[in-house]
Design goal:
The protein has 196 residues and is α+β, with helices and mostly antiparallel strands. The protein has two domains: 58 residues; 118 residues, Sandwich (Jelly Rolls), CATH 2.60.120. It has three helices and eight strands. It has a four-stranded antiparallel sheet, with no helix packed on it. Strands 2-7-4-5 form a four-stranded antiparallel sheet, with no helix packed on it. The mean pLDDT is 84.
């Protein structure tokens, strides 16, 4: 049997309790006004202030969850990633710490022409993340194209969420030493609250 949620402890002093109630009522109106005007960051800040003053305040907690949910899906962009290209600019600016959801569709083929010795993947191109395989869709978040060589790529998966590690531009590509002989493309739907 689940326990009922613990009620926040309120001050015993009637005057201080009155100040708490007055703040919460005014803050609730302000947060709703910010939400109505689509100023979600400001609304979230107000709700978070309410929760700091009155922990477990259901209206404020619901407001935070509502805003986080709408922020996740506020912006969306469909990006085409060609198999035979190096890093490709998605046109999406991600915000640090903001949840990002991706949907991926499509097929591509990794093509290699070799001699009898095969191909050795250079150490500089080997990934520390064992989930990244030859032909995986990978991404990086950078602030300039010059950073692409040093950026640590991460796996982009269908239906998965990740948090942007920093604010910057999302670049995508197939993981391959030389993609120029590959075929196909992926369509990536990126959903988040984009940075300006």
């Amino acid at each position: 049997m689940s326990q009922p949620p613990k009620q926040p402890s309120l001050p015993a002093d009637p005057q201080l309790l009155g100040l708490h109630k007055e703040f919460v009522l005014k803050a609730e109106k302000l947060a709703l006004e910010y939400e109505r005007k689509k100023q979600l960051e400001k609304a979230r800040e107000v709700y978070e202030s309410m929760v700091r003053l009155v922990p477990n305040y259901a209206t404020a907690e619901a407001g935070i969850q509502r805003i986080l949910g709408s922020q996740r899906m506020q912006d969306r962009k469909l990006v085409t990633v060609e198999a035979n290209q190096h890093w490709q600019d998605s046109g999406v600016n991600l915000q640090s710490g903001m949840p990002v959801h991706t949907e991926v569709k499509g097929r591509w083929k990794v093509v290699y022409e070799t001699g009898s010795k095969g191909i050795e993947i250079p150490k500089a191109f080997q990934q520390r993340d064992s989930r990244i395989k030859l032909g995986s869709l990978i991404g990086v978040v950078v602030n300039s194209p010059a950073e692409l060589k040093e950026a640590k790529p991460f796996l982009i998966e269908n239906g998965k969420n990740f948090n942007a590690s920093k604010t910057g531009r999302l670049f995508l590509r197939m993981f391959d030493v030389d993609p120029t002989d590959n075929e196909g493309k992926m369509y990536v739907l990126v959903q988040s609250t984009f940075a300006n």
